[in-house]
User: What shape does this take?
Amino acid sequence: MNIHFQDMIPENFDKNSRVWVYQSNRAFTITEAVQIEELLESFCKEWNSHGKEVKSYANLFFGHFIILMADETHTKVGGCSTDFSLRFIKKIEQDYNVKLLNRQMLAFIVKENIRLIPLSKVNISIESEIITPDTLYFNNTILTKRELLNNWIIPVKDSWLAQRIPASHLK
Assistant: This one.
């Protein structure tokens, strides 16, 4: 699985641009992905804050992740514009019968595929070695472009999940 996404992130956005990651509970079909990419493009054209256009970027990555980014060096994203983006995400949830706001479902790369594992099953997955310290994890808690580029896809051992791994499994 090719995980190199960095070249798709616009270079002309400030490194501290705000980022929101929305993970789907299932992979989008090719047809859905094409439609969603069109919706994301339209969303970016419409997104504004206090009447000013938000310098924004949105894309669907790996068929599972919608990423929104706003460069606040141009326009600050206020509460109303954040609400607008959340309504947009909820509309995608409704229209495509997916969940994009469930933070209890975690994504990993297992055997070259994205595997979704509920937080409640992470310990079992570690014990059964489905997840190892070197398993790549999608760290959807990132908040900035810099974090997106450097800390979105990281080994479990470098994430907050490392504290769940018994010392015997870290060898």
